[in-house]
Design a protein that fits this description.
Number of strands of chain A: 17
Oligomer: heterodimer
Strand content of chain A: 25-35%
Shape of chain A: globular
Structural class of chain A: alpha/beta
Helix content of chain B: 10-25%
Number of helices of chain B: 6
Bound molecules: zinc ion
Number of strands of chain B: 18
Largest sheet of chain B: 9 strands, mixed
CATH architecture of the largest domain in chain A: 3-Layer(aba) Sandwich
Number of helices of chain A: 6
Strand order of the largest sheet of chain B: 1-2-4-3-5-9-7-8-10
Radius of gyration of chain A: 20 Å
Distance between the termini of chain A: 47 Å
CATH topology of the largest domain in chain B: Aminopeptidase
Number of domains of chain B: 2
Radius of gyration of chain B: 20 Å
Structural class of chain B: alpha/beta
Distance between the termini of chain B: 45 Å
CATH superfamily of the largest domain in chain A: Zn peptidases
Shape of chain B: globular
Order of helices and strands of chain A: EEEHEHHEEHEHEHEEEEEEEEE
Largest interface: A-B, 42 and 43 residues
CATH class of the largest domain in chain B: Alpha Beta
Number of domains of chain A: 2
Helix content of chain A: 10-25%
Strand content of chain B: 25-35%
Order of helices and strands of chain B: EEEHEHHEEEHEHEHEEEEEEEEE
CATH topology of the largest domain in chain A: Aminopeptidase
Chain lengths: 312, 312
């Protein structure tokens, strides 16, 4: 059932609506005090979550009797961004994921953000699905701020994502949806996978299995699910960042998600005007190439790759 | 007067991006003025260019106090300004969310780091800035409460209002926040316009900076401290009264920033965009001075149409 969570009039004959699909248990005799929120479309250029939202609803519609809790699917927190190939909120150019928890008396983006938080708060768990951006391709991963690691990692292990990246907390990240929900006691896991503007079905299916596995663990899904792949946890390793030192066209040579050896070529930066190679990029370490530049135009400083390495 | 390139980034197919500063005097780093950090801040660029011209005249007349260095950086972002984009045109990030910067990081982090290396250590810092809501402001000085601020110092700009604001998490990446962290007295000077030049308010901003310089002993002689006769009103950002629209439509403002209003005065009419009937009349909830007005002729529901500084 589609429910409008928040809305605001647009100037000319239209309202902006934030909608969710609520799927509840058919069997009214089972208690349904448990609720999972699947949230995506915060960044209008990230579409991997569109597949997951559709696929989850499709599967639940087919097997409604196995549902023992409420599933709220929010496929588009930023509908105007999705409609205009735009990452931020098109009218104000604000990044929606930098204005949470919002403000009911603030301008539209902040008002909508506050209504979203109100609607999701109190859920048993929220899964906030992102797709990196158009520049970088990511191995499916759960990102958790180090301050939340103890409480969130146990749940993240069910998600069937190969990597759990526990990152340092940063003040700017206090304005994300995940931080806002976590700080009011609603456990929220952030998924980053794939790349902007594309759908990687295989990653979507992998995450769907993880969502069912977590729902089964929480008692929201009545069936047993197959065991998921145990994730790599980043805190046991180190993350090496590789940035461009030249502006040009990046041509990748290594394969995303492959294991690379120290000194192995990751790619090069080309200058098509002169036919020269401006920079050759070799892996500084041996490890797992979990992030790789997808968008070829790079500038001095552009992130090209991230590698997980070290010994646990 | 010397012009120096503070930072350069090469780009593919374009000339290198130079960030240039114009410097007056020798000695202690006394005052830095930063103009357009965003590509649409044309008014801020214009103000800086007028400031440079007038500072040059005063320098030639021997009116700059000895032993102090004054720097003006009119435009940090010609890369985006030349394309008509507000944020960094390659990845839409905001340089004014990247301070203090990171020299090994992403492009805009490197720009911020390169610039901040020069901007650190000034006794006073002034940023000519704009706001993410599209609208006009009554000229004022904004100071963020980041632990190193002195409201009284702001009086010598001679602008009618000094506003103290609490930094939100995303403000921790702004130039002014980081100036304060490194013990520079930092002020944001808001002028009426952003992407359009308003000559009268630009002239006022230049006078305000001269008035400040004269009060701090950076300028000798008479004529530049006249503005300081007016004692500005101080208020906290939280005390502003926000007037939100509830209806979308054609927006016809009746009052503008700087106007005095009484409780109940009509501020704007919102018309049905198809049939021209009035959908909503916005009125002033309190008597005071209009601080901000929405400046587009279209409005949505739940937008900040006006902000009023209420009478005490
Ligand atoms: Zn995202």
């Amino acid at each position: 059932m589609a429910i409008t969570v928040a809305s605001a009039q647009l100037p000319v004959g239209e309202s902006l609506r934030i909608q969710k699909n609520r799927i509840g248990p058919l069997d009214r005799t089972v208690p349904h005090d448990k609720r999972i929120c699947i949230v995506t479309g915060t960044h209008g250029d990230e579409l991997e979550g569109q597949y997951v939202a559709w696929r989850l609803a499709e599967k639940l519609n087919k097997n409604p009797w196995d549902l023992h809790g409420v599933v709220d699917i929010y496929p588009a927190l930023n509908p105007l961004g999705i409609n205009s190939v735009y990452r931020g909120m098109p009218q104000s150019d604000l990044d929606l994921n930098r204005i949470f928890p919002g403000n009911g008396n603030g301008p539209v983006p902040e008002y909508l953000a506050s209504e979203m938080v109100k609607d999701m708060q109190g859920a048993t768990v929220c899964i906030d699905i992102h797709a990196s951006n158009i520049f970088l391709r990511e191995l499916p991963q759960i990102r958790i701020s180090e301050t939340m690691a103890d409480s969130l990692v146990p749940m993240a292990r069910f998600m069937n994502m190969p990597l759990i990246w526990i990152h340092a907390s940063a003040t700017v990240l206090e304005s994300t949806l995940a931080h806002s929900l976590n700080s009011v006691g609603t456990p929220t896991l952030v998924v980053e996978m794939g790349v902007g503007m594309r759908i990687t079905r295989e990653y979507g299916e992998q995450l769907i299995e993880g969502i069912f596995s977590l729902m089964s663990h929480l008692g929201i899904w009545g069936r047993k699910t197959p065991p998921t792949t145990p994730p790599i946890i980043s805190s046991d390793w180190q993350v090496s960042f590789i940035n461009a030192d030249h502006s040009g066209i990046f041509i990748a040579e290594a394969n995303h998600t492959a294991r690379v050896e120290e000194g192995e070529p990751l790619g090069f930066i080309a200058d098509p005007l002169s036919g020269k190679v401006l920079e050759k990029i070799a892996s500084p370490v041996s490890g797992l190439l979990f992030t790789l530049r997808e968008y070829p135009v790079v500038y001095e400083g552009s992130l090209l790759a991230r590698i997980l390495h070290g010994t646990p | 007067m010397q012009r120096e390139t503070l930072f350069t980034i090469n780009t593919i197919y374009r000339e290198p991006l130079h960030i240039d500063g114009i410097f007056f005097g020798e000695g202690e780093k006394a005052l830095a003025v930063v103009g357009a950090l965003r590509g649409n801040e044309v008014q801020q660029l214009y103000i800086c260019s007028q400031l440079v011209k007038a500072l040059g005249e005063r320098e030639r007349a021997g009116r700059l106090a000895p032993g102090c260095r004054v720097g003006v950086i009119p435009c940090v972002n010609p890369f985006s300004m030349n394309l008509g984009k507000r944020f960094w045109a390659a990845d839409n990030t905001d340089i004014n969310r990247m301070f203090p910067g990171y020299a090994q990081g992403e492009t805009t982090q490197r720009i911020a780091a390169g610039l901040f290396a020069h901007l650190r250590g000034y006794k006073y810092g002034v940023q000519l800035t704009s706001f993410h809501l599209s609208g006009d402001f009554t000229p004022h000085v904004r100071i963020i409460d980041a632990g190193y601020h002195d409201l009284g110092l702001a009086d010598s700009f001679g602008l009618p209002f000094v506003m103290l604001g609490k930094p939100s998490p995303i403000d921790t990446g702004t130039l002014n926040y980081n100036w304060q962290v490194f013990e520079t007295n930092a002020f944001s000077v808001y002028s009426k316009e952003t992407s359009q030049i308003h000559e009268e308010s630009a002239r006022r901003a230049v006078e305000a900076i001269f008035s400040f310089m004269a009060a701090q002993g950076m300028l000798r002689g008479v004529g530049d401290a006249d503005g300081a006769r007016q004692r500005p009103r101080h208020f906290h950002e939280e005390n502003l009264v926000t007037v939100l629209s509830s209806q979308g439509g054609i927006f016809l403002p009746r009052r503008a920033a700087g106007d005095r209003v009484e409780a109940g005065d009509a501020l704007a009419d919102t018309l049905d965009p198809y049939v021209g009937e009035m959908k909503e009349r916005l009125t002033a909830p309190r008597a005071g001075i209009v601080f901000f007005n929405h400046d587009s002729n279209l409005v949505g529901g739940h937008e900040v149409a006006f902000r009023i500084i209420p009478d005490l």
